[in-house]
Design goal:
Blueprint (H helix, E strand, L loop, with lengths): L1 H21 L3 H4 L24 E3 L2 E14 L12 E14 L6 E15 L16 E15 L2 E14 L2 E2 L11 E2 L6 E15 L2 E14 L17 E13 L5 E11 L2 E12 L1
Antiparallel strand pairs: 1-2, 2-3, 3-4, 4-5, 5-6, 6-9, 7-8, 9-10, 10-11, 11-12, 12-13
Length: 281
């Protein structure tokens, strides 16, 4: 009898210890698209420290602002005369949630702005072969996205643009007077703008299927004629159309995954298909 009581007590203690780990967070149960339902205790929301949303009529509005900085002490990867630089990122976001008990709707607005100065690696297929140094370029971009969720359906729309600006570099000396002292890189300047729409449907709190078409425009600032750089005629602007078809799911543990199948077609290249998967822990 004593052993039976001890075994029962030990089982009760083990169950109590595992319950906080295996039980999903209460706030995430309301969202069938959340993939953090089985969180570790340290990753769960902390009501005593989390910021409170703003009450606007039947809506709860939660604004946020993220600011980041990345320091590099040798942005040009030079062995001498190293140049330092700082990359800044700003990410504002707003989420609005209703407090209707039967027909809850969630609207989220997110935005991001980024700027960076980088060096093109030597192993990049588009890198210049006769450059005496790494090609520096600057990147400016931004994106705005919105999400609407009601019951088991979710619609996400995102649009953005990224501008690439390449700088001229010194050419390798070859004792040829006809060789220009610098390698022109202005013909590589371009801007990519895109829009994507993702429609998702949750068949259960752990599994959701989605389809995501994407349209991308690539616009070059300067056309190029590689046979005669002094008279550029070659138009490289392109339109790329792609689509994703996939599923997002989560196991009853701190582990989830997303699988997809994509197809892409561009005006200046043959079509292609890709499959992939990502996991989260």
């Amino acid at each position: 009898m004593k052993n039976a009581v001890q075994r029962w007590a030990l089982s009760s203690v083990a169950a109590a210890a595992l319950a906080p780990v295996m039980a999903p967070a209460a706030s995430a149960q309301e969202n069938p698209f959340a993939r953090d339902r089985y969180q570790a205790v340290t990753d769960r929301p902390q009501p005593a420290f989390d910021p409170l949303p703003l009450r606007v009529g039947p809506w709860f509005v939660q604004p946020s602002l993220g600011v980041g900085a990345l320091y590099n002490d040798n942005v040009f990867s030079e062995s001498t005369n190293a140049v330092e630089d700082v990359i800044y990122t700003v990410t504002p976001a707003v989420e609005a949630r209703t407090n209707w008990s039967r027909h809850e709707a969630v609207i989220g607005l997110n935005g991001s702005v980024n700027a960076s100065r980088q060096n093109e690696p030597r192993y990049n297929p588009a890198a210049v072969s006769n450059a005496a140094e790494l090609v520096p370029f600057t990147v400016y971009g931004g994106a705005v996205s919105g999400t609407f969720q009601a019951s088991r359906t979710q619609l996400e729309i995102e649009t953005g643009a990224t501008d690439f600006n390449f700088e001229d570099v010194r050419a390798v000396e070859d004792n040829n007077p006809a060789t220009p002292p610098t390698v022109d890189q202005d013909f590589r300047d371009n801007m990519e703008s895109w829009v994507r729409v993702r429609a998702s449907y949750a068949v259960s709190p752990d599994v959701a299927f989605y389809v995501e078409p994407r349209l991308t425009y690539i616009n070059f600032a300067n056309p190029a004629d590689f046979s005669n750089p002094a008279n550029p005629q070659f138009d490289r602007d392109a339109t790329r159309i792609g689509a994703l078809l996939g599923a997002s799911f989560e196991f009853q543990a701190p582990f989830g995954a997303t699988c997809w199948r994509s197809a892409r077609r561009a005006t200046s290249a043959p079509s292609s298909r890709t499959s992939g998967a990502t996991t989260t822990r």
